[in-house]
Amino acid sequence: MRTTGPEGSVTSDVPEAGPRAEEPRKLEARLTDADRFYRAFVAAGAGTTLVLITLIGLFLLNGAWPALKTSGLSFLTTLTWGPDGEPPKFGVAAMMFGTFVSAAVAMLITVPIAVCTALFINEYAPRAVRRSLTSLVDLMAAIPSLIFAIWGLFFLVPLLAPLEDWAVAQFHGWLPLAEASATGGSLFNAGLIIACMAIPITTSIIREVLAQAPRHECEGALALGGTRWGMISSVILPFGRSGIVGGSMLGLGRALGETLAATLILSIAFEIKPRILENGGITVASGIAIEFRDAQELGLSALMAAGLALFLVTFAINLLAALVVNRKPAGARA
Amino acid sequence: MTMPETKVLPNPRAPEGRQPASAPAAGPRGKVPPRRRPRAWRWTDLAEIAGALGASAALTWMIFGRLLPFRVMPIAYVLLAYVLFLPIYWFVIRDGQGATAAKDRLVTVLIATGALFAFAPIVFVVGYVVKRGAEVLRPNFFTETMQIVGPLSKATEGGALHSIIGTLEQLALATAIAVPLGLLTAVYLSEIQGPLARPVRLVADAMTALPSIVAGLFIFSIVIKPHIWLQSGIVGSLALAILMLPTVTIAAEQVLHVVPGGLREAALALGAPYWRSVLMVVLPTARAGLSTAVILGMARVVGETAPVLMTTGGTTVMNVNPFSGHQDNLPLFVFTQIRSSQENQVDRAWAGALVLLAVVLLLFVLARIVGSASPGRRRLRVPRRRASRTTSDGGNPS
């Protein structure tokens, strides 16, 4: 409200208080003793969390150190895993390869399906079922990975076995991906089941981001005569690009750390090969789950080094995803 | 606000019109065209789909049934029919409504297919677990242990009471460790915003990336390997608490952020010290959301297998003391039984999986009920209580 003006009746009393009202009254925030205690208590809680979490990182590094010192750079290039042998020979190369291949398979399946599902829920599904579909996705995200893993082992893999055998029979010889002596316990199947676990979380994040697309711009696109796909491709997808990338990366982080699907499905083999339909493979997480029981002093240290390597990768991916998701989307004006 | 270019245009369908709201002002003409509902289904749409489906089915039958000299799997029929359906449908729509509409319809079909692939797993997972589990789930599953059950006993013999007890105790302990810490941290992040806020938020975000097996390995190597505490329920709870802590912290912080700042300011303006404003105003307002955060954290860890695999030991006998001796829990029960080579043990694992699934669903539904109860209850209760308090305060001579 402006105080100047010819007919401003409100202006009359303001100038009187003028000179002193210029400088604001000093506000003193005094903390009582109880307040100080409260602040210290809460800060102590937060500090404990901070210390606890930092300790985990430090302990992992500390525990991994002997193994890293023993193996040096060959830790990244060696395929076999024999840290308790004489001489110790071990490396994370085969595990990392398996981790990345199964995660890549999972992401190739997850991302298109997740984007489609998010768009379907937001733009195509009738309003009445939209909420229930959203709940369903969240519910899927809550189902333990163990249940997905045993379901995959007993239902999905046998179901797909004839199809995979057929693909191998048809394409072997001229497509290295489809070369296989036996199918079933392959990195591809592990990735497939990991995809089932990664789809809900990815969908849930992407859906939330896409739902924030400015409604008036969507309606503008429709009002200009655009089809629904025109609206999606010109407004929603450009707006949600960062959300799609970020959500996919969070799903990738989960796919990389997934233990049970790989443990239950893969036939263990420490090797690097392009034949993803063939039995055999190992991931970092399943390697830890399988090897820890027999691990001696150096073996445990080597496992911690592998765990640390995995953690660093997932951490970097999560950090990147957080940066991408939190960045102001291109269309978010006003 | 002046917009000179809008007022000179008498034509309501002017493409330059800045304010679409003024376009319907064509009313005075008196002719209102019948309302078009672009999203509604017309019978021609259905006919187009049905026709395209029929055409693709017929073509598939011709290729596989008449032209190819060998038999193929039934699933190949479905795949080929779908692949043929897409171009046929596209041509049909393009003929009738143009290329743009055809593209739109094609994408609609593709998106719906993608969504189908996302929702199909849940139907099959839940259906399969229920089917396999119900075959062997008997009441004694909840009352017996595996103590006297041999590998050749029938799948319906024995039970998972020891695992269920273990799961409940470990979940309770993990919650008791992680929730107070997580809530305090969330209050710090959202209410105090002190110098630690940035690093705490950073490490909490980082921790959500911690693979669960690495959490188990960590606890295994600092607690069990140096014999500080042998494999037992509490050690498993520690590993679960590590996984739960960042989840609860981040969810609770988000909930606290939603509490309107006006409530805090009102409390402070009425003379409440900070701690009372948090304890009496902020936390009660966010109660429903906080409960949801806690329950979701519990749902996240109750099915975790990898960390407990390394930390609780696993056993077939009852052990109600989580602080000493090996303890079992439900995911571990399922995991060990399913890896057995005995058919009946594998069958028994599905009973465990069914119970585990039921527990998770229960927690999820609980979280939904608690979470969705929040706005209504808040709107109803807080003002009433505040009103009654002001009147009683006003009545009190002070």
Automatic annotation (TrEMBL), chain A:
Region of interest called Disordered, as start-end residue ranges on this chain: 1-24
Top-level lineage group: Bacteria
Transmembrane among keywords: yes
Domain ABC transmembrane type-1: 96-321
InterPro entries: MetI-like, MetI-like_sf, Phosphate_PstC, Phosphate_Transport_Permease
Any GO BP: phosphate ion transport
UniProt entry keywords in alphabetical sequence: Cell membrane, Membrane, Phosphate transport, Transmembrane, Transmembrane helix, Transport
Stretches that traverse the bilayer: 40-61, 90-121, 133-161, 181-206, 251-270, 302-325
Record membrane topology: Multi-pass membrane protein
Record localization: Cell membrane
GO cellular component assignments: plasma membrane
MF annotations from Gene Ontology: phosphate transmembrane transporter activity
NCBIfam families: phosphate_pstC
Role description: Part of the binding-protein-dependent transport system for phosphate; probably responsible for the translocation of the substrate across the membrane.
Family, per entry: Belongs to the binding-protein-dependent transport system permease family. CysTW subfamily.
Name used for this protein in its record: Phosphate transport system permease protein
Gene name of this polypeptide: pstC
Automatic annotation (TrEMBL), chain B:
Domain ABC transmembrane type-1 as annotated: residue spans: 164-367
Transmembrane segments: 46-68, 74-93, 105-130, 171-190, 202-224, 230-252, 273-299, 349-371
This protein's name: Phosphate transport system permease protein PstA
NCBIfam families assigned to the protein according to its UniProt record, in alphabetical order: 3a0107s02c (TIGR00974)
Bias kind Basic residues: ranges: 378-388
Gene Ontology molecular functions: phosphate transmembrane transporter activity
PROSITE patterns referenced in this protein's UniProt entry, alphabetically: ABC_TM1 (PS50928)
GO terms (BP aspect): phosphate ion transmembrane transport
Protein's job: Part of the binding-protein-dependent transport system for phosphate; probably responsible for the translocation of the substrate across the membrane.
PANTHER family: PHOSPHATE TRANSPORT SYSTEM PERMEASE PROTEIN PSTA (PTHR42922)
